[in-house]
Amino acid sequence: MIMLTVRNLNHRDIEAAADLQRRVYRNIPAFGRDQFASLLEHFPAGQFAAEDDGRLVGIALSLVILWDDYSLHHTWASVTNDGLFDTHNMAGRTLYGAEVCVDPAARGKGVGHGLYEARRKLCRAMNLKRIIAGGRLPEYHKVATRMAPEEYAKRVIWGDLYDPVLRFQLDQGFDYCGILHGYLPNDIDSVGNAALIVWLNRDYDPHGPTRMPPANLFEEKTP
Ligand SMILES: CC(C)(COP(=O)(O)OP(=O)(O)OC[C@H]1O[C@@H](n2cnc3c(N)ncnc32)[C@H](O)[C@@H]1OP(=O)(O)O)[C@@H](O)C(=O)NCCC(=O)NCCS
Fold first, then answer.
1. In this structure, which residue's CA is closest to atom 40 in ligand 1?
2. How many Cβ atoms are within 10 Å of 175's Cβ, its own excluded?
3. 130-136 and 94-102 beta bridge pairing
4. How far is the CA of 168 from the centre of ligand 1 (A)?
5. What is the tally of structural domains in the chain?
6. CA 28 → CA 12, 138, 159, distances in Å?
7. Within a domain: residue 222?
8. How far apart are CA 111 and CA 103, in angstroms?
9. What is the Å distance from ligand 1's center to 152 Cα?
10. What is the CATH number of the domain that holds 84?
């Protein structure tokens, strides 16, 4: 049983958030304090923390980007400017998922769903057109000598292979748009590859402006 709260991330969460990333990834370095601070400076409304009874169990970090600047052949480094996150641009209409992770001990209990629901809520509240991300393929390395990542993704989509990230993202209503080669070179589990995924905001009004989300969209718990 989980007591899930999703709220905006704040500076007091930084140490626990980096510690969480260290527990989740075997070869991808955790963000430095300066990287979390940059995200909180540029776009505090886009950074989420999931808590289970007061304990940080997940994070989801996002930017707004001008998608046409990147399009098909982007990498994590190009879209985040090597993790500086100063590519955040409120003239864009695309919410970009730069990171999501859940404590291994808290998986399969809806924490990832709660974080993705928060992103969808933010996307609608801001009148953004879509959410885009490069999704990891953490089980791909097990079959990489036998098939290309494109074939792997198709087999996950039609249900003969299981990947905990791509399957989760498809179940969250994202469409698969192809493979990004060399997206995150130090992601050895995905052999550097990622799935380009997109969720369209059906409520998007192309004639309306981007709105700043109301301050109470995600009530922050007091410490
Ligand atoms: C991808 C990730 C964020 C998903 O987080 P999660 O908290 O396990 O996600 P959820 O619990 O919402 O959903 C996961 C599964 O649990 C199931 N589930 C959801 N709520 C549930 C509940 N209350 N009880 C039981 N199962 C549940 C879902 O059906 C889902 O199954 P499926 O993916 O086979 O359809 C997590 O696996 C993770 O952190 N991976 C490593 C980091 C990473 O690679 N991140 C992606 C970067 S692109």
1. 101
2. 12
3. parallel
4. 6
5. 1
6. 23, 12, 28
7. no
8. 9
9. 19
10. 3.40.630.30
Domain span including residue 153 = 4-200
In a domain, 85, yes or no: yes
Find the residues whose C-beta lies inside 6 A of ligand 1.
Answer: 24, 100-102, 107-113, 135-136, 138, 164-165, 167-168, 171
> Which residues in 53-186 belong to E strands, given as ranges?
55-65, 94-102, 130-136, 175-180
Task: Tell me the C-alpha distance between 81 and 199, whole Å.
Answer: 23
Residue 35, sorted as left (phi over 0), alpha (psi -120 to 50) or beta, turns out to be: alpha
- The answer to the question of residue 43 being in a domain is yes
**Where do we find the tokens 């370095």?**
29
Whether 216 maps to a domain, the answer reads no
Mean pLDDT for 119-144 is 98
167 CA closest ligand 1 atom index: 33
Element (H, E) at 22: helix 14-24
- How many angstroms separate the CA atoms of 137 and 134, rounded? 10
- Dist. CA 2–CA 5, nearest whole Å: 9
Distance 169 CA to ligand 1 centre (A): 9
If we measure between CA atoms, which residue out of 5, 28, 2, 8 comes closest to residue 189? 28
Is the pTM value of this prediction over 0.90?
yes
Count Cβ atoms below 10 Å from residue 11 Cβ, excluding itself: 11
Mean pLDDT value of segment 70-75? 86
Q: Report pLDDT digits (tens) over 2-28.
A: 999 999 999 999 999 999 999 999 899
